[in-house]
Amino acid sequence: MIQKNDETVKLKLPSGKLVDVPNTYFATLGLVSNLEHKSTIPGKAGYFRLRGRRPIVRGIAMNPVDHPHGGRTNGGRPSVTPWGKPTKGKPTVKRK
Questions:
Q1: How far is the C-alpha of 82 from the C-alpha of 76, rounded, in Å?
Q2: Comparing C-alpha atoms, which of 64, 65, 61, 67 is closest to residue 81?
Q3: C-alpha of 64 from chain center
Q4: Position 81 in a domain
Q5: 3-class DSSP state for residue 21?
Q6: Closest CA to 27 of 35, 36, 17, 19
Q7: How many angstroms separate the CA atoms of 71 and 69, rounded?
Q8: Is 38 helix (H, G, I), strand (E, B) or coil?
Q9: 72 assigned to some structural domain
Q10: How far apart are the C-alpha atoms of 6 and 64, rounded to whole Å?
Q11: Cβ contacts of residue 86 below 8 Å, gap of 6+?
Q12: Of 41, 42, 66, 96, which residue is least crowded by CB atoms under 10 Å?
């Protein structure tokens, strides 16, 4: 922070650029500590399970009583949300 007025504050960024911002703004100073975090590779099978994340099962792999998408052996109904509304939009053309 270089200068503080009644309504604005003059900041000097790490690039050397000076910026005027309102003094009602909040900011965090510093750098991100662990830049390599998002590029780490999960090292083994069950990595996410050991961290508490449970598997996500597709609705189409379930039975009809478990999910509206379930039980597609002989045709069935069109894709719907878990609440039964059509996922791919309402039909706009009559069949006959």
A1: 15
A2: 67
A3: 28
A4: no
A5: strand
A6: 19
A7: 7
A8: helix
A9: no
A10: 65
A11: 78, 79, 80
A12: 96
What angle (nearest 5°) sits at the alpha carbon of residue 78, between those of residues 96 and 57? 175
Amino acid code (one letter) for 76 = G
The model's pLDDT over 37-90, given as tens digits with 9 standing for 90+, comes to 889 888 899 999 999 999 999 888 888 888 877 777 666 677 777 787 888 877
What total of structural domains would you count in the chain? 1
Tell me how long the chain is: 96
Q: What are the tokens at 19?
A: 């910026």
For residue 13, give its domain range. 1-28
Q: Is residue 13 part of a domain?
A: yes
pTM, full prediction? 0.39
| 69 CB burial (10 A radius; 0-12, 13-18, 19+) | buried
Residue 68 lies in a domain: no
What is the token pair recorded at 76? 């069935």
Two tokens, residue 23: 């003094």
